[in-house]
Amino acid sequence: MMIFDEKKQYLGCSDAYGNETTLKKGSYVVRAQVRHEDVNKLEKFKQMILVLEHEVKEINASVFGHQDDVALGGKALDKKSLATGKYVPLFIGEPAHDKLPAGSTVGDVLMGKIHFGQKDGTIKG
């Protein structure tokens, strides 16, 4: 894959296994070339996707104690005590649409960290 800026200036490349490339905010063109002597095998790549990752601001999401509460708009958990060695299922609700990054679309995936307890860190979680 080759990366170009909006002035068609070459910025870098990677192979099939990919290398991380850090880019500043802007418009880019990514060109990928897949070659094989068997056209049938190449046909399978017509729907190939490109995975892009970028950092976003903190996004808050509600946590629920039951999957039905997520689906039906039930009450989110405020606090939940848990004894040492015990476990409890938690269900993360969808963040508010207006809190998602601009340009987010169906199929985008949010990955990151989840913090339990108070933000000030006095509660270990």
From TrEMBL:
InterPro entries: TPPII_Ig-like-2. It holds the Pfam family TPPII. Residues 1-103 form the Tripeptidyl peptidase II second Ig-like domain. It comes from the Eukaryota. This is Tripeptidyl peptidase II second Ig-like domain-containing protein. It comes from Phytophthora nicotianae (strain INRA-310) (Phytophthora parasitica). The lineage of its organism: Eukaryota, Sar, Stramenopiles, Oomycota, Peronosporomycetes.
